[in-house]
Amino acid sequence: MQDESCRHHPGCSESPDGAGLFHRSILSGQMRRLTVGPGAAHKVAIMFTLHRQGGAALLVTATLLLASSLQATNGMLMTSYGTRYMGMGGATLAIGGSVMDLESNPSNLTRLDDAIFEAGLSLMAPQLTYRDKFYPGNADLSYNNSVRSEPSLFPLPYIGYAAPINDRMAWGVSFYAQGGMGAEFDGILRTTPNGGTLNQLFQGLAGDPTLTLPLIGDLRQIRERTYSNLAFVKTTFGFSYQLTNALHVGVGVDVGAAQMKWEWTFKDPGGFMTMPGAGYRYESDTAYGMAGKVGLVYEITENWAASYAYTGRTNLRFDGKMSVNEGDPRYFLKPTVSMNMGYPDKHGVGVAYDNKKGLIVGLTYSRINWASVMNTIEFDLSAPYVTMPGGLVTNRLAFNMKWRDQNVYAVGVEYRPDTVAYRIGYNYGTNPVTSAGVNPLFPAITTHHASLGLGLRFDRLDVDFAVEHAFLSTVKGDTMSDWTVLHALYSFDANGIKNPYMNYEVSMQQTIFSIGIKHRSE
Question: Could you read off the pLDDT of 229-258 as tens digits, one per residue?
């Protein structure tokens, strides 16, 4: 008997036309080769069955599966670089006094009185939660997930040296973690494709009706796992020149290196065994890229300064290998893969007030052009392992990101009445991740950040401490996002409007602790 929730759904395998339109458009129509019961169209778990049956890779436009040993807070960038600057919310373009000016505004180098060596380490503790509901009108096929990402503590180091050359010139070099992102979720439960037991599922996969799985064979659920890791580090060489008593200009060259790894697989409900013939596993070689930056600072008066800085786009080519449908002998060889991705260009303006008695206040605005680099990203495989809608076999795997450009506003205060400095900052960045592109694999969604800092001065040595907290932010997925399309069944009302049986959201908050030292030479 036909499932009532499927009766008028043109994509259901039991719809009157019998065409399986929904599955042809999303899963290459390979479901027609299966013997399935009512509601089989409703499960994302059908992915690995389809891989096994027809080698059909999904049109995986679910979003780039990038995560990291480096997390980030303004998209894939940090709100600030350096412990002192973190305590001030990153509102430091016109302040200066750190080797991390090489990241933000190298023109500040000629405002140094002494050569400085600086190093530090930040530890980031993100907390992410993924929630979804699937309710197709059949209780046996419904599920409700609320899963936290695996606990992680990410290190973010920096180190650098800067020094005057003469009265009007200065130079510097720094190495630092630029950014990255991601998460690992292991425990998102789905119902088996046909609502049957794991024994029935594996009997169909193996073509052996006598096959049984010990202990778990009678269960009717599978477990979706997502993992990703993107890490990006930079070395920046910079030079600054004081054109006039008031105007400082600077240039810099960034040399960046990045690595990426992501997986999307399925397991038994206990998480012990990965399902064969399913999923993707990608690991890149190291990708390298270069970019330039320019900046200027104009000292309006003894107390006021204004600045502008621009960092160019970094293009990265990620070559690597990908495992597709591992366990299926037809996909035994791992194809090589190429993918081009960029880190965006960024404009920033700032103003600072220094009363020369220990009080410094900074304000900045930045524009980060994510839309130009994070719209659609394509992986080109050396073998045609991807089956597109309509049955076309191709070597291209596309990820729709749909990011938008980001505006970032920051304010920071430092008060140093004696040898102790007190700092406070606030940073707000509009969310670059849209509801059309969000999923549990891409959690760069925090917007509001508050920070506190403390600095201790010992003769020529400064020791700085800072803590930054990114407040809880939640983004709900769009009804036509890639993640929804991959997981949901759609019904149609009398006006032809699509109503999904699935909704989801991603939440994120995080805390960063940082310590840094700075030594000033004579």
Answer: 888 999 999 999 999 999 999 999 999 999
